[in-house]
Every structure is written in structure tokens, then in C-alpha cells.
Amino acid sequence: MQKKGSGNLSRRKFINLGVQGYAGIQLTQALGTSLLASGCETATARTVAGACYHDCPDTCSWKITVSGEKVTRFEANKENLFTAGKLCDKMTAFPADVTYHPDRLLQPLKRTGKKGQGTFAPVSWEQAIGEVAGKLSAIVADKGREAVLPFVYAGTQGLIQGSSLSNRFFGHLGSSMLEGTICGAPAYAGVSATNGDALGVLPEDIVHSRYIVLWGVNTMKSNQHLWPFILHARQQGARIVVIDPMASATARQADWHVQPAPGTDTALALGLIHIILSEQLQDQDYIDRYTSGIEALGEHVAAYPLARVAEITGLEPAAITTLAREYAGSSPSLIRVLIGLEHHASGSDAFRAVAMLPALTGAWRHQGGGLMHFTFEAFGQALNWEALDFHKTLNQNKRRAINMVQLGRALNDTSLQPAIGALFVHNANPAATAPNQNLVLKGLEREDLFTVVLEHFMTDTARYADYVFPATSQLEHWDLMDSWGQTYLNLNEQAISPLGEAKSNNEFFRLLSAAMGYEAPYLFEDDLSIIKKTLDSSHPYLEGITFESLREQGWAKLKLPSPWLPHAEGNFVTPSGKCEFYSHALEANGEEPLPQFRPVQYSADSLKQYPLHLLTVKTSHNFLNTSHANVAHLLEKEGAARLDMHEADARERNISDGDIIRVFNERGEVLVRARISDRLLAGVVNMPQGYWSSLMEGGSSANALTQDLLTDRGRGAALQEARVQVARV
Ligand SMILES: Nc1nc2c(c(=O)[nH]1)N[C@H]1C(S)=C(S)[C@@H](COP(=O)(O)OP(=O)(O)OC[C@H]3O[C@@H](n4cnc5c(=O)[nH]c(N)nc54)[C@H](O)[C@@H]3O)O[C@H]1N2
Ligand SMILES: Nc1nc2c(c(=O)[nH]1)N[C@H]1C(S)=C(S)[C@@H](COP(=O)(O)OP(=O)(O)OC[C@H]3O[C@@H](n4cnc5c(=O)[nH]c(N)nc54)[C@H](O)[C@@H]3O)O[C@H]1N2
Ligand SMILES: [Mo]
Questions:
Q1: Taking phi first (over 0 means left), then psi (-120 to 50 degrees means alpha), and beta for anything else, what does residue 658 get?
Q2: Both 83 and 214 in a single domain?
Q3: Which residues line ligand 1 (CB under 6 A)?
Q4: Which range of residues forms the domain containing residue 56?
């Protein structure tokens, strides 16, 4: 990936690279709120199809009934077999919780108080856009184009309102680029180093699996629509194993929960490979035909004997041996990964090592066997990507790249030339979701920083803006939705007119382009035209799928060959065409050709000062990252922010269940309630991410404790690599 020289490692970029050949669900859904009561469906009611915008692998299809201009019914699409008529609990009341929420921002706002205070006065669009364009032009003239930084993430995953026009706008302007690596980049870099891409077993095919390893995924929370397929496999006799340092909701439903120390999966995977090879449990024929580097791998894993791996991971030696034997001895065997393993110092190498296991055992030969990871590359191949984001036209490679994980550093870096003078945030809430929160806030407080935020709500980030613009919700704009967890393409039809003065992200950029005096036609393209051109592709996966057919049904499953057995006969898209145990490409790039377990080395002093390993896992049931964490009834269901800790750690500190505690380290301090729990091993604590700092008692949330350390590859975030101390207040 780094060979491409591009800083932009977003999913979109992955797809581009792919194109170039480089390596608690509820059954009935209805509004259930005053909305339904307020108007029964009339003869003029119409129903349109849409899909969920969240950064989630499921991308559910839905139907909306509208009477006049009011949404009267909102329900999951029953025909789409993946959504299967069920939305998650986060989304059941979406129109009331977001679109019609009384706190929704419906007018442009201009700051009147201090940054962070959240005091604003309404202004007209015309005035606000005019002033933003004026200020932006002045910053560009004074400090240079790269003094401007867009901060865009996946608040909406829609291909249109995501970053189609903002990419064009900032490309045209020549601003700095954002390395969008906080989620998925190390995982992708690891798996693709081994396999060339990440498109492995398709979700529905898990029903064929007979041994399912859910490795660092909390499927029941974060990928809920896969769970029924897993249960189906279990009914057919599959054994379900979860590997997770926390007894997550999913781990508690598993047949076997393997609970290693956090961040040790690279060692565990290499240890399993060692056992498989020394006990000759491998599929030698598959290895001979379709892989490269087995000798080097064999020598390498000699450094990971059972005793050492048991010591690193904290697992019983017998458990590790059993896992290796059961995995290699079952067929079809499947490993499911997503993101969970990546937020550690050697997170990318964990994925690289885990991805070797199915080739070693020949699991890829069978339907339901192999590795199940991301699906976005199928869309990357199918759709007309250049029509969407103009990545070839707007040469991205010459622009400076700023890593989103290190936003705090970048905003405070006085040696940066030019310093960041303007920050444009949309589809993201970095004041809460980026690590080293206090450093980010210090940067956002800078009087000489000009900040513009497009949002639905007055988030932790919006409070620091000079101007906040009201964005439309998924019901008020058109969009085209791909997915990173399944293979359905969705068209999201605009169901109602924008509420108040809300405008879509794209409309904001069209207006700003005009106010800047720009004339390039691609800056003004309308949303429907972008959608139609993006669908204009002769790729076989899109055969028979048109704008009209999508509008009719709402969704279509990509026409992938069936049965889908991507690596039954090799066909890896690595430089050698084989599954690469030993990577010459990485070696040529100055990286380790084989995966390594490299723990962060803490000094004895710092281990004494901050003895607990902090996880800030985000799989809350009622929030999606920080989205919805301001909605009263969802916040109430989720409960107060807490720290899960082992009884022994609590006893040592004289802490009882429910006590208000201080969780702190050199970066910050968070006030939460203690929850004494057997979910974690002694020495490891967990504070769920998602809560808004501005709604927390001490004004800080989980990311006040995390550090902005980058991962071993993919330039992602080692978010789960934090240490803290805890004390009663
Ligand atoms: N309800 C809900 N669903 C969501 C989200 C949400 O916030 N709420 N967020 C969405 C997003 S953005 C994403 S990226 C996906 C992520 O979905 P997942 O990939 O499932 O990622 P996480 O929930 O971060 O972590 C999954 C599990 O990995 C475990 N884990 C942490 N460190 C380690 C480790 O070192 N080794 C192992 N083996 N396991 C480890 C955690 O304890 C956790 O239970 O979920 C999406 N879905
Ligand atoms: N400590 C810790 N930190 C983490 C994680 C963790 O596990 N632990 N997980 C990381 C991961 S995997 C991810 S993906 C990131 C997510 O980080 P973010 O992308 O910042 O995710 P959200 O908090 O959901 O913020 C998305 C925002 O987009 C807004 N939005 C939604 N739709 C639209 C739209 O159409 N227009 C506009 N303008 N805005 C819209 C929502 O209102 C919301 O405020 O967080 C990361 N941070
Ligand atoms: Mo994510």
C-alpha cells in the first residue's frame, strides 16, 4: 500500500487499488413513537426504498412510507435476505431519533462564545457560505493551499454524501489530504500482504462451515445480521470459538471462549502454525501448489514454541494445542475477522499471520472454508469509481497527507509548514473518536484555527466550530450504498424534503465552490447524475443492475460467480499469484518479510504507575461509535459510562461495584462508574467508547486515555494499547 505513495488509505482507496489489481435485533419494526400516532397512512402515501448509512458491515435495506411530507412508517426490508426484515435496536426508531429529533440542527450557526462552549447564533446560508468562502480564500492566500485540512470519515457510508463532492472540492483546491486510517487500514494491509486482497468467504456461506473461529469480532453487537447464519451453521453441527480478551456478548454465546492477553494474537497465530506444521496437520498439496515461502515460515515459527506462546498470551498450553488440532482437523473451517485485532501495536501483523492459517490447512478448497473479511473490493471492481471521486483526474499523490489518528499532533505542531489553518469536518466526530483527546481539544481551541463542521447534532466536535452547517439525514437525500460486510448494493431514495434549512454534504460543497468562484463543472454535478454514472459499468457483477431496477427494488445482490470459492485453486492477487507466507514485496519495502510479535516495551516505572491495560472497545449495543449517544432513550438503555474491571483489581483499590472512579494516565482522566465483572482477566479493564465527552461528568471520554501510536502497518491506530491507573473518587 505504501508503495503507491498515496496518503489516502481510506476504503475508497483500497477499492481503487483493488481495481488496479494491486496487491439484540427486534422482529417487528415500526416507528413505535408519536410519529405513527400523528398521522395514519392515507391514500396519497408512497413507499420508497433506502438503506442504513452507518459505518457497520451490515448496511441494512429499509422501506419508508411517506404521507405528504411526513414519514409515517419505517421498517426493515423483508425481501433482502441479509437484512431479513430486521433492523438493529440502534436504528428501529431512526426517524424519531435523528431526523425528527428536537435537538437536530436545522439552521447554519456562527460561533458567539469561546471555542468548546457551544454558544452560537443562527445565520443565513448565504451569509455563512459567503463568510466561509472569504475566510478560506484568505487562509489559502496567506498560508497556502495545504493549510486547509478536510477531516472526513464514515459517519455516512453513502458513496455520494460520503466524500464524492468533498473529494473533488479539496482536490481542486489542492488542500492537505487526510490519511483515513482509523478503521480497517492495518487489517486490510495485513490480510492483503498474505492474500493480495481481502475478499474471501461471503457471509451467507458461513452456513456451510463446521468450525467457526470468531477472532476479535463481536458479531452479536457489531455485525448482527451475520449471527443468524452462524446459528444456522451451529444447528448443522458447527462449533463456534471466540478469541477475545473480553468475554463479549458473542464470546458468552460461543461453544468455547479463548481469552488471550490483548494484543498477543500475532504470537498466538504463529504458535498455531508451529503446532500445525510440527504435528503435520497441514494440507501439503495445497501448500505446494498455491503458496510460497513455507520453508521460511517453518523456520520462523520455530521461535514461537508452545511454552513461549503460552507465556505471551497467558493461555494454557493445552488450550493452544487443542485450538490448533481442532481447527486443522475440521472441515470446512472458517476464520471470521473484521477490525478488532488491528487496534494494537502489531495489529497488522496479527491479520497477516491469521490469514495464513486457511492456506496452511487448505480450508479454501471448501465452500464455507477460508477467511471471511471485507467485501468492499467486490464493489470496487463493479462500480465506475473514477466517475464517483475523480481520483485519477485529481492527482492525489502530490498533496501533503495528515494522518487522522494524529490529528492532535498535527493541529498543535508549530513546525508543520504550513501549519493547519482551516479544518473542515464532516461525517466524523474527532473530538470524541480520535485518540489523545486532550491534545485534539487543545488544537481545536486554537484561536487561529478556522473550523467548519457539517452535522446533524451539536457534537463534541461541532462545539469547537466557527461555523456549523445543518446536514440532511439519510431520509432527506439520495445516496448509493456499497458495503464492507456483504455484497448487496443499495439505492437510498430521498424520501422527504430536507427539514428546516438542512442541506446535504454535496449541496454544501456545490454552494462553497460557487462562492469560491470555481468553475470546473465536476464541482457542481448533481447527486443523481453521480449515482447514474457510478452505476455505468459493464462489469459482470453489475449485470442487469441499473438505476431503474435499483429504484424499483431498493437493493440488488452483486452477481458474483456461484459457488464463490475464491482461492480453491489459488488465484491469489499477490505479486506471485500465490498465498505469500514470505513477502518479498514487503521486504523490498524495508519491512519484515514474515509477521512478528512486537509488544510495546514499557519501563518498569510506567508499568508500576499505570498497571492496567485499558481496552476501549466500541461495541455498544445502542450507539454506533458516537452516533446516537445523545439520544436519551438509547443512552438510558446503554446505561452510564463505566469501567469493567476484575474483582481482584477492584479489591486491591478498595473499589466496590457502582463506585464513581477516576481512570487516569499521563494524557487524561475520565470519571465513570466501576462495574466489577468476570468479563475481563485481572490486569485488563474496559471502558466502552462512544459516550460524548460533553455529556460526561468529568468532561472527558474514553479517548482522553488512548494514545496516538500508529500500528505496525497501514498507519492505523493502536487504540487498544493504553495503560491506566484507577482510584476511587
Ligand atoms: N453496536 C455497534 N455496532 C458497531 C459499531 C458500534 O460502535 N456499535 N461500530 C462499527 C464499526 S466502526 C466497526 S469498525 C465494527 C467493528 O467491529 P469488530 O471488528 O467486531 O470490532 P470491535 O467491536 O472494535 O472489537 C471486536 C472485539 O475484539 C476484541 N479485541 C480487542 N482487542 C483484541 C485483541 O487484542 N485480540 C483479540 N482476539 N480480540 C480483541 C474486543 O474485545 C471486541 O469484543 O463494528 C461496527 N458495528
Ligand atoms: N477509543 C476508541 N476510539 C475509536 C474506536 C475504538 O474502538 N476505541 N473505534 C474507531 C473506529 S473503528 C471508527 S470507524 C471511528 C469512528 O469515528 P467517527 O467517524 O468520528 O464516528 P461517529 O462517532 O459515528 O461520528 C460520525 C458523525 O457523522 C455524522 N453524520 C452522519 N451522517 C452524516 C451526514 O450525512 N452528513 C454529515 N455532515 N454528518 C453526518 C454523525 O452525526 C456523527 O456525529 O472511531 C474510532 N475511534
Ligand atoms: Mo470502524
A1: left
A2: no
A3: 55-56, 183, 215-218, 221-222, 243-246, 248, 262-263, 265, 338-341, 344, 615, 617-621, 623-625, 690, 720
A4: 25-99
